[in-house]
What we know:
The structure is a single chain. By secondary structure, this protein is mainly beta. Helix content is 9%, strand content 36%. It has four helices and 18 strands. The protein has helices spanning 111-119, 132-137, 148-151, 241-244, and strands at 9-14, 18-19, 24-25, 31-32, 36-37, 42-47, 71-72, 74-80, 83-89, 92-96, 101-106, 121-126, 156-157, 166-167, 172-184, 187-199, 219-222, 225-227. The chain has a seven-stranded antiparallel sheet with strand order 9-8-12-15-16-11-10.
Amino acid sequence: MTEMAAVPAVVEINTVAGIGNLPLNNEKGTIFRPFFLYNYGFIRLISIGLMEGNSSMISTEIAGFYHFYPSIAAVIGASFENKTNFMAAAWHTGVSHSPPLYLVSVAPKRHTYDMIVRSGEFTVNFLPMDKLTIIHGSGIVSGAEIDKVNKLRIPLEESIIVKCPTIESAYAAYECRVVHRYPAGDHSLFVGEVVAVHSDGSLISERGMLDPEQIDFAMYLGANTYISANPDSMRVLPEDLETLINVR
């Protein structure tokens, strides 16, 4: 096969959100095969020095970026004026040990956003793969339109500090009080102090971690797609750098 000349190429395409290999040809015959391509409109792909069959891609007009997925799918709960709502979230993380702080990213257009702002509280619920109906269902319809708790038959567990309940079928859940709210583009970052943790001690390994042999983690890959972890892939690595670089 003849090697292609390394010429810059600009290709404008219309894409639909999804995952897969999408071949694109420019006038020089260069073939682009981006493996992850999520978008909802026109984007411009700028390719520099690609050869035929090379999947490298550079974009300077960012319409969507999901390369940090997969992410554990969480279900965020909020209650206000005797109403409770839940929403699925992939953008969340712990940010401090002392005090224990947990961050969730929520768009202001979400019904849950207003409930968190008004109540100053939220819960974070981690559910396994066999509860995907609750996880995904809570993210595809607005709580302003339906009662998700009843529609999805979400089993509730009373919280001990905050007013919003947790989800009974969660393998772990946090009760959080909002201590900071920061605007971040088209989302807001809610930082909550974790005031109570719900967990099943039988699912904790001897090393103090969640046991992947017992929990089928639900991880969001993007584009309505979920995957789970393979416990056989788990590796425990040394903390010493010299020992680490010799690990094969």
